[in-house]
Every structure is written in C-alpha cells, then in structure tokens.
Amino acid sequence: RVRLIWLTEKLSGKPITTITTDELLTIRKELLTTRAPATANRFLAIVSAVLNYAHSKSQLAAVPKIPYLPEPKDRFRWLTRPQAIALIAELPEHLAAMTRFALATGLRRANVTGMTWHNIDVERKIAWVWPDEAKAGKPIAVPLNADALEVIRKQQEKNQRDARYVFTYRKKPVLRTTTKAWVLALERAAIDPGFTFHDLRHTWASWHVMGGTPLEVLRQLGGWADMTMVL
After folding, report:
1. Are strands 140-143 and 168-169 parallel, antiparallel or unpaired?
2. End-to-end CA distance of the chain
3. Count H helices, E strands: the chain?
4. What is the average pLDDT score of the chain?
5. What is the pTM assigned to this prediction?
6. Measured at the alpha carbon of residue 86, what is the angle toward residues 82 and 92, in degrees to the nearest 5?
7. Is 105 helix (H, G, I), strand (E, B) or coil?
8. pLDDT digits 0-9 by tens, 150-194
9. 109 with 65: CB under 8 angstroms?
C-alpha cells in the first residue's frame, strides 16, 4: 500500500502508454536516493504488475523493459539454540510468541501473522495452511510440537480465542515483524543486525537437519514443492 501511494504520486495522470523504460529509470534513480536496490526493485515490481495487467486486457500493446537492479546474494542465516533463547527474551511479548511459534513450526512469516484460530486443531496437535495461503499453492499440514502447543495455549489464556487471529497486538493482527522492537532486540541479544523473521524458518530447517530429519520429510514439513529449496 505504501509503495502504491508513492508510485501514484509520481505517475498519477500519465497514460500507461507513456510509461517507458526511461520513465522507470527516472523513478528508479529517485528511489535509490533513499532506498536500497532490493527495495527499489519491489517498487518496480508493482509497476510491472500493473503494466502486465493492462497488457493482458489489451490496453497496452507491449510492456516496456523493467529496469531491475542486481541484488546481492545474501547468506542464509540461522540461530543456535542459545541465541534463539536470548532473542526471545529480548522481544516484546507478541513478537516473542510469534518467534517461538515460527521456530517450532518453520512457517513463513505471512503464515504466522495470518494464522487464525480456524487454522488450529489443538486436540489433533495440527495446524493447517490452506492452498491460497501457501507459497507453493498446496495445503500444508503442520504438526504442533510441545513448544508450539504451549504458545497456542498462552494465546488462548490471553482471552484471544474470540479474536480471529492467533497473534495480535493491542487486539489487532500483527502486520509487520521487522519493527524497531525487533531490531533493538537483535542488538541486545548480540545477533547479526541483518537477521530477519524469515531466517527463523532457516533456523528451524537447520535444526531439523542437524537432528537427523530426512530431507524428504523436511520438504513435506516445510511445504516446499520440490527438493531444490530444501537443498
């Protein structure tokens, strides 16, 4: 939404047929004055989506080349168990609960923030990610271990069972995880400042492999479509 608002200010009133690669290069240049290349690419991706939609509706003869920037390939980060404990101790209550749940289930950030009580079956010790919520477009059955169940029970004790979402902050769903509180918690726990919430999924997978979980089992648990991402 923030990106759409920014782009609307720059492109409002311009016919889509006048949005050329040169026009997008100008926008990219302005973005780079305050944003990283990866973020600039996310803005350009929105423009690309709009132009491709217009093209599919025969409102645009051809889509101009989108001048994406090369992005550095970052390393995969993961935490040791002592680091994870230290991070959880430094996080505010709602982020700490989400972190514990992510480390216990390996779910992606969007599946944790979007987890509703309808996705949870405590008696069967399982959670569901429906096809429209899964990156691979296939349903994922997520077994809930003791850590995950403890997090769920604590959320229930907070009288959130009547709410739609499992994880909330001030009675509202949590939309962002990489907040100032997250960054400060990383600093206090002496963890690499580049560590993201998605890296909790890398941590979960790493712990499984080190614990001897077969890769095919890990693929199914993580909801990956094939072995490429697992490897």
Report:
1. unpaired
2. 34
3. 11, 5
4. 90
5. 0.70
6. 150
7. helix
8. 999 999 888 655 678 999 998 888 888 988 999 999 999 999 888
9. no
Cβ neighbors of 150 (< 8 A, separation 6 or more) are 100
**Residue 152 buriedness (CB in 10 A; 0-12 / 13-18 / 19+):** buried
Could you tell me the sign of the dihedral formed by the alpha carbons of 50, 113, 39, 10, in that order?
A: positive
The first and second tokens of residue 155, run together, are 């959320």
Q: What stretches of 19-111 adopt beta strand conformation (E)?
A: none
- Closest among 99, 96, 105 to 128, alpha carbons compared: 105
CB 211 within 8 A of CB 81: no
Contacts of 196 (CB under 8 A, 6+ apart): 77, 178
DSSP string, 164-188: SBSSEETTEE---SSSHHHHHHHHH
Mean pLDDT of 103-125: 93
> How far apart are the C-alpha atoms of 41 and 142, rounded to whole Å?
33
Put residue 149 in one of left, alpha, beta given phi > 0 → left and psi -120 to 50 → alpha. alpha
